[in-house]
Design a protein that fits this description.
By secondary structure, this protein is of the alpha+beta class. The chain has 6 helices and 2 strands, in the order H-H-H-H-E-E-H-H. Strands 1-2 form a two-stranded parallel ribbon.
């Protein structure tokens, strides 16, 4: 999956192994399958979040300062930023991170990722 979503990312075995440790969980497969079923409306979610889920499903405008990011080599399916830019009614910017950066921005471009957090916090 990493190679599909981030085709130019040359991660090493140590990086992969640190992440792979999270799969060492007897509930991992059940949690992943439930998540996909829930997102497709094929399984119930957590009842205490039903109201919040309904509000989010209405795709409300987002009025807080926001910066969206995407790598220039993102291999994961994604819409063009212009498709969702109008949903942001507060201060908004989009940054395309260049240099062969894929879908895993925090690991592939940690400096750019941190800068966005700092910039949006100061907005």
């Amino acid at each position: 999956m990493w190679q599909l979503a981030s085709p130019k990312w040359k991660f090493d075995d140590a990086t992969f192994n640190r992440s792979a440790a999270s799969f060492d969980n007897p509930d991992h497969v059940a949690v992943v399958i439930h998540n996909y079923r829930w997102r497709q409306g094929l399984a119930e979610g957590e009842v205490q979040y039903d109201d919040l889920e309904k509000r989010l499903a209405a795709a409300p405008n987002i009025g807080v300062p926001t910066i969206t990011m995407e790598g220039d080599a993102n291999g994961a399916p994604h819409p063009d930023p212009s498709a969702y830019a109008k949903k942001f009614t507060g201060t908004y910017a989009h940054r395309t991170i260049e240099g062969g950066i894929g879908h895993n921005l925090p690991q592939e471009a940690p400096q750019a990722f941190a800068e966005v957090i700092i910039d949006v916090a100061g907005a």
